[in-house]
């Protein structure tokens, strides 16, 4: 196809030499929003004036002016490990943020390590013989928007898989609801998960006479407003959210008539999101799902040079709270042909201007290099110079066509080399521009610069009006490329496995019930299906845990114990139990992090160490007077995902990705055992420990004592123990002069010990010296002494 004459261009001086102004002159810079049109035309169209300092860049750089989009909705998506700004223009990174002083993508959260200036999906194809490309973000080029025609109703829709029925129903500007959970039939139509979460009646079951109770999801009868609670006669609309044009809103001082369908949502004839029978039936995928849409066919604002393809992109973003998936942020994109033309030879892609490194270094964005991992359909950027910098990858997880049937393009470049017109961009996406070298040689880490990258793939053939193409991808980071506690490559493999299971996290095995029986310098720990649970809870059987998404369990024969008699409604997967792990902690507080593995048991099969299964362990050689904690977990078999990639024409590579074995939480059944000193049975067995007691010594737990943890120790923790006391006795402490200091009673048939805080009966601290104690019981009377040294 011949090249098409185009007048569109990139903003001048678009490299980070100028556009990184937000880090230095944050208050005088504004985001690049669209391919530029003459400024006078923009001002005429939207009636805005430009402040004198708008568009000022670094000293020595030319000025430029752009107009920020005021109706854009933005939020910060992510989890406790990684967060990214995104907006409903399909942009992610700093360019989606409301303030350039914020971090576009932060990993680890709070580290002030920047990763992403701007990025987003791209589609290219041939429309009426013309090569066209529409990009959410390609080096400042932004061609998708929600049309500025209904700004109050434009939203980023949210829901959470983890919410329950007590959760808040809405948040100002956004929506979140428990009704988005999987397998929840909120409209009671006998179907589940059948509708989208977009504020529209996609499944056609909306009835304005029964369903329209308002965008907040709260009926009048449960609302309270400026005139008080609901009253069917005197206050039938407490919140004044009913669309009633004939009335005024007395809760507003200007007493405006209730004409606005966006402000007054009930009875407005629109299926507002939040109504109980419309749109909430979507199946939430993650701990934070975000859904938004934009098109390249918007009518407002008017971009005179924009040549739309007729594409609407319906985007979904996911975030998982699990630590294992903290460095993974998946996205789903659905490219819908909403135009009248067939789009031929379609290619998809994802372009990014990444900047990696700590903000403490003003030139961090110059320290990047790009490399690709074609076996994982990934391209990434890394900063090898700045300490603490972490990499970021774009990983393609799936499309409407098998990945191994597509030709992939992995390219990188310095910002000034960006193609500026559609025909050139399309040549990059279909690899024509690279003479068959679709995978650019990895950039040497020693040649860092301000880099850009794109991963593109196709062809997908024709996209007819009404047709949809799907793209699943993820932004993936990590502690390093393939090193550290959470390597990026490992996280890419996790992302692929997660996608292969439909973004359903692996089912965790359940911990068995556990009992601890004390003995002489020993403890017997029992667990399993025959052990009673504490508090009368029914016994649990970890062997029954079934995971629908586990492909290894599903590969067993139907008559195998892993597959036979599946739970009702389950046809895929299988039972995942593999074994038990016994943990012990000698931390008196039982901190989960202090547990260490004591023993492992597993089934004799192809997994684990084939040690065999047992449900009892005797822990011997324990020290009397100490507290021990125990916990038993269950762990499961791994999962398997096949990742197939085309390494050259007609040559394919199939990687088998084996996930880690899942394990139940250590703290589920943890319990403690205080291994007390045994009671004395004759005179002369009682001792005082430590003896002498020296105030300049450390008797904390960390040093083998009983006075609590070092970080929490105070003078009030001082303590000695009387050990091997008779089951019932009275202890009296005297000074050498014969004055009674305190009297202590002991009555315990199992514990032969008693703690004393070294205070007199009047709560006064003892002075240095020698003290006499007596122990009187049925077995006789013992007299002893101990020394206190201050």
Structural commentary:
The protein is mainly beta and 790 residues long. Helices cover 5% and strands 31% of the residues. The strands form 10 sheets. A 10-stranded mixed beta sheet has the order 7-8-6-11-12-13-20-17-16-15. A 5-stranded antiparallel beta sheet has the order 5-4-14-19-18. It is elongated and about 110 Å long. It starts with 15 loop residues before the first helix and ends with a strand. The relative contact order is 0.09. Residues 1-70 and 163-178 have low confidence and may be disordered.
Please render the helix and strand layout as text.
Elements: H1 16-19, H2 39-46, E1 74-78, E2 83-87, E3 105-106, E4 113-127, E5 130-135, E6 156-159, E7 170-171, E8 174-175, E9 224-225, E10 228-229, E11 289-295, E12 311-317, E13 328-337, E14 343-358, E15 369-373, E16 378-382, E17 392-399, E18 407-414, H3 422-429, E19 451-458, E20 468-477, H4 488-500, E21 514-519, E22 522-527, E23 546-547, H5 551-554, E24 574-575, E25 577-585, E26 596-602, E27 616-619, E28 626-636, E29 640-648, E30 651-658, E31 671-675, E32 687-689, E33 693-694, E34 720-723, E35 728-735, E36 740-747, E37 753-756, E38 769-777, E39 780-789
């Amino acid at each position: 196809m011949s090249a098409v004459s185009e007048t569109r261009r990139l903003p001048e001086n678009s490299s980070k030499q100028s556009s990184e102004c937000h880090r230095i002159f944050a208050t005088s810079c504004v985001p690049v929003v669209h391919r530029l049109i003459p400024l006078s035309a923009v001002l005429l169209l939207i009636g805005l004036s430009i402040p004198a300092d708008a568009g000022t860049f670094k000293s020595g750089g030319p000025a430029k002016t752009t107009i920020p989009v005021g109706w854009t909705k933005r939020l910060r998506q992510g989890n406790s490990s990684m967060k990214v700004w995104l907006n409903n223009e399909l942009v992610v990174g700093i360019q989606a943020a409301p303030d350039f002083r914020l971090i576009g993508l932060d990993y680890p959260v709070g580290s002030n390590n920047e990763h992403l200036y701007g990025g987003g999906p791209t589609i290219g194809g041939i429309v009426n013989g013309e090569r066209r490309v529409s990009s959410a973000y390609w080096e400042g080029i932004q061609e998708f928007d929600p049309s500025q025609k209904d700004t109050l109703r434009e939203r980023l829709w949210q829901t959470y898989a983890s919410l329950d029925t007590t959760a808040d129903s809405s948040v100002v500007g956004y929506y979140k609801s428990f009704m988005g959970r999987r397998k929840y039939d909120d409209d009671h139509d006998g179907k589940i998960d059948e509708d989208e979460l977009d504020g529209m009646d996609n499944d056609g079951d909306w009835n304005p006479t029964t369903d329209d109770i308002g965008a907040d999801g709260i009926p009048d009868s449960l609302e309270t407003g400026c005139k008080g609670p609901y009253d069917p006669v005197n206050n039938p609309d407490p919140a004044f959210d009913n669309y009633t044009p004939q009335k005024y809103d007395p809760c507003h001082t200007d007493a405006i008539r209730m004409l606005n369908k966006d402000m007054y949502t009930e009875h407005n004839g629109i299926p507002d999101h939040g109504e109980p029978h419309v749109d909430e039936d979507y199946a939430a995928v993650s701990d934070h799902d975000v859904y938004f849409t934009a098109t390249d066919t918007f009518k407002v604002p008017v971009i005179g040079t924009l040549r739309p393809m007729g594409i609407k992109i319906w985007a979904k973003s996911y975030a998982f709270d699990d630590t294992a998936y903290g460095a993974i942020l998946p996205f789903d994109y659905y490219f819908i042909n909403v135009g009248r033309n067939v789009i031929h030879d379609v290619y998809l892609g994802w372009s990014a201007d990444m900047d990696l490194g700590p903000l403490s270094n003003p030139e961090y964005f110059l320290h990047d290099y790009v490399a690709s991992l074609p076996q994982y359909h990934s391209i990434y950027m890394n900063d090898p110079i700045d300490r603490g910098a972490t990499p970021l990858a774009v990983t393609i997880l799936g499309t409407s066509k098998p990945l191994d049937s597509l030709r992939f393009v992995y390219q990188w470049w310095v910002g000034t080399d960006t193609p500026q017109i559609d025909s050139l961009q399309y040549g990059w996406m279909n690899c024509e521009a690279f003479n068959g070298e679709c995978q650019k040689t990895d950039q040497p880490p020693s040649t860092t610069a301000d880099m850009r990258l794109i991963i593109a793939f196709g062809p997908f053939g024709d996209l007819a009006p009404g047709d949809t193409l799907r793209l699943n991808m993820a932004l993936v980071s990590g502690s390093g490329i393939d090193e550290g506690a959470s390597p990026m490559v490992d996280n890419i493999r996790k992302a692929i496995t997660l996608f292969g299971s439909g973004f359903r996290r692996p089912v965790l095995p359940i911990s068995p019930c556990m009992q601890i029986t004390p003995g002489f310098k020993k403890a017997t720990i029992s667990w399993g299906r025959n052990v009673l649970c504490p508090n009368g809870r029914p016994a649990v059987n970890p062997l029954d845990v079934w995971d629908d998404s586990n492909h290894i369990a599903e590969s067993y024969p139907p008559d195998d114990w892993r597959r036979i008699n599946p739970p009702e409604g389950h046809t895929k997967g299988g039972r995942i139990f593999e074994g038990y792990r016994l943990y012990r902690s000698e931390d008196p507080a039982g901190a989960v992090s202090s547990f260490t593995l004591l023993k492992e048991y597993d089934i004799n099969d192809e997994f684990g160490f084939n040690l065999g299964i047992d449900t009892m362990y005797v822990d011997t050689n324990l020290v009397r007077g100490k507290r021990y904690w125990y916990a038993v977990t269950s762990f499961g078999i791994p999962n398997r995902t096949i990742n197939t990639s085309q390494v050259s024409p007609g040559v394919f590579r199939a990687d088998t990705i084996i996930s880690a074995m899942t394990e139940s939480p250590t703290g589920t059944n943890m319990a403690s055992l205080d291994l007390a000193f045994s009671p004395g049975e004759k005179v002369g067995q009682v001792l005082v420990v430590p003896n002498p007691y020296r105030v300049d010594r450390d008797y904390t737990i960390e040093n083998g004592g009983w006075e609590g943890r070092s970080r929490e120790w105070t003078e009030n923790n001082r303590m000695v123990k009387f050990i091997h006391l008779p089951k019932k006795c009275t202890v009296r402490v005297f000074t050498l002069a014969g004055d009674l200091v305190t009297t202590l009673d002991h009555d315990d048939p199992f514990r032969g010990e008693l703690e004393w805080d070294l205070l007199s009966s009047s709560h006064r601290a003892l002075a240095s010296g020698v003290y006499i104690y007596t122990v009187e019981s049925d077995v006789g009377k013992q007299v002893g002494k101990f020394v206190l040294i201050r």
